[in-house]
Amino acid sequence: MTAPVRENLSGLDLRAEIDRLRKERNAVILAHYYQKPEIQDLADFVGDSLELSRKAADTDADVIAFCGVKFMAETAKILSPQKTVILPDMDAGCSLEDSCPPEQFARFRAQHPDHIALTYINCSAAVKALSDIIVTSSSAETIIGQIPESQKIIFGPDRHLGGYLNRKFGRDMLLWPGVCIVHEAFSETELLKLKAQHPGAPVAAHPECPPHIVDHADYVGSTSGILQFAKSFPGDTLIVATEPHIIHQMELALPEKTFIGAPGADGNCNCNICPYMALNTMEKLYIALRDLKPQIEMDEELRLAARKSLDRMLEMASGTVGKGDLGRA
Ligand code: 13P
Ligand code: SF4
Question: Ligand 2 mean position to 181 CA, how many Å?
Answer without folding.
Answer: 7
